[in-house]
TrEMBL record:
InterPro entries: PLAC9. It comes from the Eukaryota. Pfam families: PLAC9. This is PLAC9 protein.
Length: 80
């Protein structure tokens, strides 16, 4: 007995066209998603730059010595 050959539709076959259409639809959708992600990243970059600018402005307006961060406990022994 011989093994059955796998079915490979040809270009003129409706099954091939359906598969090709689905493939193209997926690529079109991925292009839209990629564009949306790029726009979102650009928007977030703009927002972050704006927030950093506001923080810088606030930092310049603080009186000297009004903020002194604690020394980090690098060794975890509780001493600072």
């Amino acid at each position: 007995s011989t093994a059955a050959e796998p079915f490979v539709p040809s270009r003129g076959d409706p099954a091939w066209n359906t598969g090709c259409d689905r493939h193209m639809a997926v690529h079109d959708r991925l292009d839209i998603i990629e564009e949306t992600v790029e726009k979102t990243v650009e928007h977030l970059e703009t927002e972050v730059k704006g927030l950093l600018g506001q923080l810088e402005e606030l930092a310049w307006n603080l009186p000297p010595g009004s903020f002194s961060p604690p020394t980090p406990d690098l060794f975890g022994d509780g001493e600072q």
